[in-house]
Amino acid sequence: MILNKETAIKTAELLLQIKAIKLEPQQPFTWASGWKSPIYCDNRIILSYPPIRNYIREQFARQIEELYGRPDVIAGVATGAIGIGMLVAEVMNLPFVYVRPEAKGHGRKNQIEGHLESGQNVVVIEDLISTGGSSINAVKALKEANVNIKGLLAIFTYGFDIAEENFKEAKVELHTLGNYEHLVDTALKTNYINAEEAETLKTWRLDPSKWKP
């Protein structure tokens, strides 16, 4: 869920401005899952724009404090949320760790990189929520390290039902700065897309696995 409508609208405006989110209903993208999609989100580009990454960092820090007070550690999900997670930890003056999709096959064979102690309170940072699979995988690794997961915050979510179900099943509280609904509405109001394209985007969102251009 989003905590602040103004933040959701502002986040959508910024992501569209730097083309972190590309909307191309006429020439759909193909996701790794094989889904055809009229939208593609790459939040890593935020790191290249200091004013925008600072805005995202500050919104994360503010919402973390509102929701959970001061955690012991900020954890970023590799690889997309390592950069922004580190910025959040820096501004909050907190330790930072990041979580790989799986343990390394060499060296110390770590899945969690950084110093983490049993019983610590951890807030997880993610860049994007689609099905929630990679986020839940990271949370599982952290729980196996015997820490307390206060919640997970992400920049953007597509709002798929499967993601909601996955987070509910994993008993993880999810909050995001922006979401799909505000993105489409903002793109339409700013003439980034037209009414027909907006309808296509809304239709895709209802059943993305079966959608065809």
Outline the structure in words.
By secondary structure, this protein is an alpha/beta fold. The chain has one domain (5-198): 3-Layer(aba) Sandwich (Rossmann fold), CATH 3.40.50. The chain is 41% helix and 22% strand. It is built from seven helices and ten strands. The chain has helices at 5-17, 50-68, 82-92, 133-144, 161-170, 180-189, 195-206; strands at residues 21-23, 29-30, 36-37, 39-41, 73-77, 96-99, 112-113, 121-129, 148-157, 174-179. Strands 7-6-5-8-9-10 form a six-stranded mixed sheet. Strand 5 (73-77), helix 3 and strand 6 form a beta-alpha-beta unit. Helix 1 crosses helix 6 (180-189), helix 2 (50-68) crosses helix 3 and helix 6 (180-189) runs antiparallel to helix 7 (195-206). It is globular, with a radius of gyration of 17 Å. It starts with a helix and ends in a 7-residue tail after the last helix. The model has no long low-confidence stretch (mean pLDDT 93).
CATH architecture: 3-Layer(aba) Sandwich
What's the CATH class, please?
Answer: Alpha Beta
How many helical elements? 7
Q: Count structural domains.
A: 1
Topology, number of strands? 10
State the main characteristics.
single chain; 213 residues; alpha/beta; Rossmann fold; six-stranded mixed β-sheet; two-stranded antiparallel sheet; 7 helices; 10 strands; 41% helix; globular
Question: What is the secondary structure topology, with strand pairs?
Answer:
Layout: H1 5-17, E1 21-23, E2 29-30, E3 36-37, E4 39-41, H2 50-68, E5 73-77, H3 82-92, E6 96-99, E7 112-113, E8 121-129, H4 133-144, E9 148-157, H5 161-170, E10 174-179, H6 180-189, H7 195-206
Parallel strand pairs: 5-6, 5-8, 8-9, 9-10
Antiparallel strand pairs: 1-4, 2-3, 6-7
Helix pairs in contact: 1-6, 2-3, 6-7
